[in-house]
Write a structure and sequence with these properties.
Blueprint (H helix, E strand, L loop, with lengths): L3 E6 L3 H10 L5 E7 L3 E3 L4 H5 L9 E3 H4 L6 E5 L4 E3 L4 E4 L2 E4 L2 E4 L3 E3 L17 H19 L3 H7 L1 E5 L3 H17 L13 E5 L11 H13 L2 E4 L4 E5 L2 E4 L2 E4 L2 E4 L3 E3 L16 E2 L5 E2 L2 E6 L4 E2 L12 H19 L14 E6 L2 E6 L2 E4 L1 H13 L4 H17 L14 E2 L2 E2 L9
Parallel strand pairs: 1-2, 1-9, 2-5, 9-21, 11-12, 11-17, 12-13, 19-22
Antiparallel strand pairs: 3-4, 6-7, 7-8, 10-18, 14-15, 15-16, 20-21, 23-24, 24-25, 26-27
Helix pairs in contact: 1-8, 4-5
């Protein structure tokens, strides 16, 4: 019997979990495509940006996850186009046929039409962005150390735009780094003058949490030296700073943790979309008119029990990936597909050492107990045992020492001359 070809685009939580569900069926030929060769544990990406973990601690090669599955092939490529009627996708300038397609491409940052802001305020969705944020922050401290006192403060001003979980976790970690980890490393710059501002346009930070936990998180941030500004709009971003509700604030380092939009590949699919541009899916996670095409994770818009689209969090992608895989297998067995039912296991966010909040149904936790649960859950869900051990040891050491083990300033260019990056083609420098 001819094998059915399943193509999965995206090696994130949704794509990997879908592949795991499908790989058990030997009658399937599965191809998982991603433009990076690794699966990234995004919830801990902020710790790479804040010099707490190394990139390899939270990433694992996709090939390594499926090396024992003979019916799974991994392709390093970027999908450029989709032809739904012809059941084919395009990458590496060639078209490739499929019987089933699972789109799990995720989202990217959205600057509300001001794309040039990305140059001054990188977002945090991949390792390249995380190491760039780390480079900018650590470089700011170095420049403050050798600057005249009147100019040093500009380097010690930091603004994080967006009061969701990513923004809150970045702000808390930066506060700990500035006022505890690095406090005695710099002899000339007075790190007590560091200002960290978390900007949120809404009424409060962490709006997906109950108001009491949101307020608790604000208190935690303030105890770490972070200024929380709600009902504040950030605009006019440039290399010298930005405007906060019309007030100019001098700042050399800005981090973007606000708006997001679906992957550009979403525009290649002609079907209904929601206000955020995500593809609206049916109850079985397929798109209207194409039961062989599934969209999962942040790229999809699925209406939950509350009547609102499901949030773009890891547990949604994990569950949808498993469900999409099972529905494909149900087709092969001539069994009816099952409607996707999301099981909300709660939300959690960490603010700093011993400080976290958890909301799961009627349960509301904060403080050390919440932080321990947060740490256990995140370690448990890492892809490999080795990563779990390394991250656990890193956190244990950091808990007692406030140490940070990955304080490396890594530049994008790989060739340097007199401390300045030079282009690859500049042979005269040799």
């Amino acid at each position: 019997m001819d094998k059915k070809k399943v193509i999965i685009v995206g090696g994130g939580f949704g794509g990997v979990n879908a592949c795991k569900a499908l790989a058990k069926d030997p009658t399937l030929e599965i191809e998982i495509i991603d433009r990076r060769n690794y699966h990234l544990f995004q919830p801990l990406l902020y710790q790479v940006a804040m010099a707490g973990l190394n990139p390899a601690d939270i990433a694992v090669p996709i090939r390594g996850l499926f090396k024992k599955n003979k019916n799974v092939n991994v392709t390093l490529a970027e999908v450029r186009d989709i032809d739904l009627d012809g059941k084919r996708i395009q990458y590496d300038d060639q078209w490739h046929q499929f019987d089933y397609l699972i789109l799990a491409c995720g989202v990217k940052h959205f600057y509300f039409g001001n794309n040039d802001w990305e140059n001054f305020a990188p977002g945090l969705k991949n390792i390249e962005q995380a190491t760039e944020i780390r480079r900018r922050i650590l470089t700011a401290f170095e420049l403050a150390e050798k600057s005249e006192k009147e100019n040093a403060d500009n380097y010690l001003n930091f603004v994080i735009v967006g009061g969701g979980p990513t923004g809150v976790e970045l702000a808390g970690a930066l506060g700990e780094m500035s006022f505890k980890t690095l406090k005695y490393d710099y002899k000339k710059a007075n790190l007590n003058n560091t200002r960290i501002i978390l900007v949120e346009a809404g009424e409060r930070i962490l709006s997906s949490f109950p108001e009491s936990l949101s307020a608790k998180a604000s208190l935690y941030l303030e105890s770490l030296g972070v200024e929380v500004r709600t009902k504040t709009m950030a605009s006019e971003l440039n290399e010298e700073g930005l405007d906060l509700n019309g007030e100019n604030f001098a700042c050399k380092t800005i981090i973007w943790a606000a708006g997001v939009k679906p992957s550009g590949l979403t525009n290649k699919v002609s079907t209904s979309k929601d206000k955020q541009g995500r593809l609206i899916v049916q109850k079985d996670l397929s798109i209207e008119g194409h039961p062989e095409v599934f969209v999962i994770g942040d790229q999809s818009s699925f209406i939950g029990k509350s009547g609102a689209p499901l949030p773009g969090v890891a547990q949604v992608a994990l569950q949808q990936g498993h469900s999409a895989g099972k529905n494909i297998i149900a087709d092969l067995r001539s069994k009816p597909r099952k409607e996707f039912i999301y099981k909300d296991k709660g939300n959690m966010a960490t603010v700093g050492r011993s400080k976290a909040i958890i909301h799961a149904g009627p349960l509301k936790l904060s403080g050390l107990i919440a932080w321990l649960i947060w740490a256990f859950v995140h370690v448990a869900f890492l892809a490999r045992f080795k990563n779990r051990v390394f991250v656990f040891l890193h956190w244990t050491w950091s808990y007692f020492s406030f140490g940070r083990g990955a304080r490396l300033i890594v530049h994008k260019s790989w060739r340097f001359y007199s401390g300045k990056a030079v282009s690859y083609k500049n042979k005269s420098d040799d």
